[in-house]
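New to this. Comment on this protein:
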Amino acid sequence: PWIFGSALAAAAALPVWWMRPVLLEAPLRERFVSGYGEEFQDDTLTDLEVRALGEFMRQLLVQKHLKWSKDRVQVEKLLQLSIPELPISDRQIYYEALIQYSTT
């Protein structure tokens, strides 16, 4: 059993080791806290976060069999229609909507 446990621990450590250069190059930044209502500010992303978002979208489009290079206009429209605009008037309302949309 301890050999199997050691093998699992080693296997779990490999992705962390491979991600180490990415994690080290990620710039540290202060956590931005936005207000709500009139004080709401949209998120700003670092170059590394933009690349991570792009990779996530690439994987999602492949998984869902959407062809960005061939059907870009239709895929953009689908994404615009699929992602709801969240209410920003109040923090609690914002997170309730986020939870509701992400679990349906």
In short: The mean pLDDT is 82.
